[in-house]
Write a structure and sequence with these properties.
It is an enzyme of class 5 (isomerase). By secondary structure, this protein is α/β, with parallel strands linked by helices. It has 32 helices and 24 strands. The protein has five domains: 204 residues, Rossmann fold, CATH 3.40.50.300; 170 residues; 168 residues, Rossmann fold (3-Layer(aba) Sandwich); 91 residues, no CATH class; 155 residues, Lambda Exonuclease, Chain A (Alpha-Beta Complex), CATH 3.90.320.
């Protein structure tokens, strides 16, 4: 086993396999689980890692690949390894694991040492309320400090929120800032020096006999600002400007040289002045924010990292750190190392240095794995240069490259190789595939630039399903969450019965139906035309169409107002229902209209199976049998930040304040701009690499004809191989014989019939009827009539705003049928049970309606208020619960049932 190892693991090359083998090998060699610090970047990855290790230990010997790899790493025989299996399973199960996200580990350190900086150890972790924070910051400034902020805002033409964004960037970077005071009056003096030589050029051109009108117009300036707009200032020599060629002579060129020198001095003075003022303000803000967070007893993740770095740098030494942490970490494993930020690495560095100190008397190891080609989080601080920096600065470390792809079929792998291998200055190792076949299709789709941009995508989906590709095996990758939502709504209208799941973190208030309700309420409250126009635009109506809603704000709760408006607009869906639920926290409509935009609830998607739509960023680390990859629909937003950070590998070299044209007068700035452009290009290439390496069997690329992101890779239309069909039959769709498009209808249209309104109301009714029934069952600690009477009263008090008196009688009848069910009562006899049992499995929280235990047997029950067309989905859900309980309790004695609570009788359906 190599004690100090870095693995460059391309997509699909077995990174998780290598981490698992490494971890188990360490256990075999005597390491305790508590002293193996394993760091990942997401909670899901951390949960999956611990689960993968545990399952591999349980099944050790079943998988030859794992066993052979562990044999090779540990230098032990199979018999020796299997002989320790029981001991390893038991010790791992009973150990306090040190498998964390980096953020959680850093948080753990701060909670241990927070007393050294005056922070309570029960601090919360949450995002800043920028509005509240900025108001408090402004209030904290004295007259002189406030004038400094106002002067900077006016001078730079920046709004306060833009200045605070700069503060947040500087906080995230956490670099040492030392402002140099510069007298602002010197800038005006320097402007006069610039104008002095500019006027000499102007005079010479105007007095030149052969000067054209265009040449004279080019020197038409009266002050510094109008001079600053002239394009000829960027030329190397004045004669390079075509209109000045006839007038050019040595004297005129000498004036231009002097002018350029004065401009260079101006730019340097101007940029340094802006930086010095910004740094001065930032240090005020930084001190204020720390005190503000202390008083409010909360921190952001960036705050935590900064404070821990300060602790380790200035307050405590590494020996004391080791002493206070729960366990001395003798082994470190880091996943996705290319996404590590500088500050995260600097926090970990004392631990890493201790291990790499070369103390041969103790068993210590360091291992990290990653892929710089999958570095797509530079905007969040990820520093891919760290991968090679750490390897190059530590002679003990060995670097190996994994170049066998276990994920994708041969044609997919070879296609990706052909795109990336010849990119200049891009580190790429050809990948080998162990799977034959694979299908690639690249099509130029002009529709992506049209209003009906997803028409061809929908047709392709229909054809894939008709050809035998299971819709559950298809993933569509897009660039933005907006594209995910747009495509989701389009496909739901196109194929109403197709189950579609989305993996996104977009805020609830950004969902179309929710936005429509919010704008409707704001229009009724403020009576401002902008809200009416927003509402009509969302509803697909003329902007000036009247809004006919009659709502009494004074007599209804916020939740009831939302429900009534959504019902009137006929846009009730699961996101509206979620909005109703989360808005119960608002006491009145005034609070709602002023605070709803701060609501951080996320969009609801109840589908757990089906065709998936997700962003490329969300797809990282995942794999799908068939991938449909869409071009960037909208142009990428330009970088409007005023700051430019230049790094020499991993060390900060310069911070520049961006000024238009500065690159023409400062070589360092020009170099930094060029370096940033190169890094941005590599970011784009890396995003494409991640996107193009998710497919196992089939990959279909929809490429725009013009301005395509795929032009970076010189990708052209092609078709390679044969479509690989799914082995299982899809049950996630209706017939797709004909693909037709119907415009999305979110609102009231004259031709709509009453049945549509009924259906939206029925959605909400069914939702609350089911919730109330489940709540009543959850409250019952015994399945008796007495318990039912008591729990039903609680249910009525909670849900009387949403259901009628007869609805609660229906609930009573259905539960009574269950109580009278002899088969169900037989299960309850001599059993212990838990209602609404939560469990974490495969990184997700699952809720089991009822879990019974009788001796060493377990029984799972899932309540349904109707036996509907979703029974296939229901059974899949319960099968998942069954597998979870089987794995968690390591037993096969698990039975699962769907309980259909019908009005005439209760049915127990074993799954």
């Amino acid at each position: 086993m190599k004690k100090y190892l870095a693995l460059k693991a391309s997509a699909g090359s077995g990174k998780t396999f290598a981490l698992t083998v490494r971890y188990i090998t360490l256990l075999l060699k005597g390491a305790k689980a508590s002293e193996i610090l394993t760091l990942t970047f997401t909670n899901k990855a951390a949960n999956e890692m611990s689960e993968r290790i545990y399952k591999t230990l349980l099944t050790l010997g079943d998988d030859e690949a794992y066993l052979n790899a562990i044999c090779e790493q540990s230098s032990m025989s199979k018999e020796q390894i299997l002989g320790k299996k029981s001991f390893l399973v038991k010790s791992f199960s009973n150990a306090t694991l040190s498998i964390f996200t980096i953020d959680k580990f850093v948080n753990k350190i701060l909670r241990e040492f927070c007393g050294y900086i005056g922070i309570s150890d029960d601090f919360e972790i949450k995002e800043d309320d920028i509005e509240a924070l900025s108001i408090k910051f402004l209030s904290s400034l004295d007259a002189q400090q406030f004038d400094t902020l106002i002067d900077f805002s006016l001078y730079e033409k920046k709004k306060f929120n833009s200045i605070f964004e700069l503060f947040k960037i500087l906080l995230e970077k956490n670099e040492k800032i030392e402002p140099i005071r510069i007298d602002g009056s010197l800038i005006n003096l320097q402007k006069q020096e610039v104008l002095k030589y500019a006027y000499k050029i102007k005079e010479a051109i105007l007095s030149c006999d052969v000067a054209s009108n265009s040449a004279k117009k080019a020197v038409d300036f009266e002050n510094f600002d109008s001079l600053f707009e002239k394009t000829w200032l960027s030329k190397e020599v004045l004669s390079d400007y075509s209109y000045f060629k006839k007038c050019s002579n040595e004297i005129l060129e000498s004036y231009f040289v002097d002018l350029k020198q004065q401009l260079q001095a101006y730019y340097k003075l101007r940029a340094n002045y802006s930086l010095s003022k910004l740094f001065e303000l930032f240090l005020m803000f930084k001190e204020f924010k720390l005190n503000y967070n202390k008083n409010k007893n909360y921190l952001e993740f960036n705050d935590i990292s900064n404070l821990v770095y300060d602790l380790l740098t200035n307050k405590i030494d590494k020996e004391f750190l080791y002493f206070r942490l729960d366990s001395q970490f003798n082994h470190i494993l880091i996943d996705e190392f290319q996404d590590t930020s500088l500050i995260q690495y600097n926090i970990l560095k004392p631990l890493i240095d201790e291990i790499l100190s070369g103390d041969e008397t103790r068993f210590k190891t360091f291992f990290y794995v990653g892929d710089v080609k999958q570095s797509i989080y530079r905007f969040r601080g990820g520093k891919k240069e760290l991968f090679d920096h750490v390897a190059n600065t530590n002679k003990l470390l060995e670097v190996e490259v994994l170049n066998t792809n276990y994920r994708s079929s041969q044609n997919v792998v070879e296609f990706v190789n052909s795109l990336f291998i010849n990119i200049p200055n891009y580190e790429y190792h050809n990948q080998q595939s162990i799977k034959k076949g694979g299908f690639i299709e690249v099509v130029e789709d002009e529709a992506l630039d049209e209003d009906d941009k997803f028409e061809n995508v929908a047709s392709k989906i229909a054809n894939l399903i008709k050809s035998g590709v299971n819709s559950n095996d298809i993933a569509i990758l897009t660039y933005t969450n907006d594209d995910v939502l747009s495509l989701y709504y389009y496909l739901k209208k196109k194929f109403p019965k197709l189950k579609i799941s989305t993996e996104m973190t977009s805020r609830l208030i950004n969902q179309e139906n929710v936005k429509a309700v919010i704008n409707a309420i704001k229009y009724l409250y403020f009576n401002k035309e902008i809200y009416k126009e927003n509402l009509n635009a969302l509803m697909g109506k003329e902007l000036t169409s009247p809004v006919e809603l009659q709502i009494d704000f004074d007599k209804k709760s916020v939740s009831k107002i939302i429900k009534d408006i959504a019902s009137s607009l006929m846009i009730i869906d699961q996101n509206i229902i979620k909005l109703i639920e989360v808005c119960e926290s608002f006491d009145n409509i005034v609070e709602f209209v002023y605070e709803v935009d701060k609501l951080d609830a996320t969009i609801q998607n109840s589908e757990t199976v089906g065709l998936q739509i997700l962003t490329i960023f969300k797809s990282k680390g995942l794999e799908f049998k068939t991938v449909i990859l869409l071009d960037r629909i909208k142009r990428k937003n330009a970088d409007k930040s005023s700051l430019l950070f230049e790094y020499d590998s991993v060390n900060l070299k310069n911070i520049f304040y961006k000024i238009k044209g500065y690159e023409n007068y400062n070589d360092d700035y020009a170099r930094a701009i060029a370096k940033e452009k190169s890094l941005s290009l590599q970011d784009e290439i890396n995003i494409l690499y991640v996107a193009l390496t998710r497919a196992q069997n089939n990959m279909l690329v929809f490429k725009k004809k013009k301005s395509s992101v795929f032009d970076i890779l010189d990708m052209t239309p092609c078709k390679i191989g044969q479509l690989e069909l799914s082995s299982n039959i899809s049950k996630n769709f209706d017939s797709f014989e004909k693909v037709e498009y119907t415009p999305m209808d979110l609102g009231i249209q004259e031709q709509q019939i009453s049945k549509e309104k009924d259906s939206s109301s029925e959605i909400l009714y069914a939702r609350y009827f089911g919730i109330a029934t489940h709540f009543c069952l959850e409250m019952m600690n015994k399945f008796t009539y007495e318990s039912l009477d008591y729990c039903l009263k609680i249910t009525v008090s909670r849900y009387s705003n949403y259901l009628k008196e007869e609805d609660f009688e229906k609930i009573r009848l259905r539960i009574t049928n269950l109580i009278d069910n002899k088969k169900f009562q037989d299960f309850l006899e001599d059993a212990t049970f838990i209602a609404e049992q939560s469990l974490i499995y495969q990184g997700e929280v699952k809720i089991i309606d009822l879990l019974l235990q009788k001796g060493d047997e377990y029984y799972i029950f899932d309540y349904k208020t109707t036996k509907s067309e979703n029974s296939f989905e229901h059974k899949n859900q319960v099968r998942h619960y069954k597998k979870a309980i089987s794995d968690i309790f390591n037993t096969n004695k698990v039975s699962s049932y769907l309980i259909y609570l019908n009005e005439d009788k209760s049915i127990l359906d074993e799954v």
